[in-house]
Amino acid sequence: MAWGHVKDPYLVENIVEEIFLKYIIHLDQHQDKRTIKAWLYTVRKNQCKDYLRTKYCKYGGSYT
């Protein structure tokens, strides 16, 4: 899913690593297994947006 936003295999790996680190750190907060999937999707979306925002600001270019 992150690939659709970023389109760089190395950055996708980094984003996925960050997502799962956040998941492990917040594991005790997820009592209901039904909310884990939604939480992961939200974190993924936000991580990709953060990367794209940083890229846009750093290089002054477009999001793609």
UniProtKB/TrEMBL annotation:
- Tell me the SUPFAM superfamilies matching this sequence: Sigma2 domain of RNA polymerase sigma factors
**Segments forming domain RNA polymerase sigma-70 region:** 2-55
Task: Fetch the Gene3D superfamilies from UniProt.
Answer: 1.10.1740.10
Short name of any one Pfam family annotated for the protein: Sigma70_r2
Annotated protein name in UniProt = RNA polymerase sigma-70 region 2 domain-containing protein
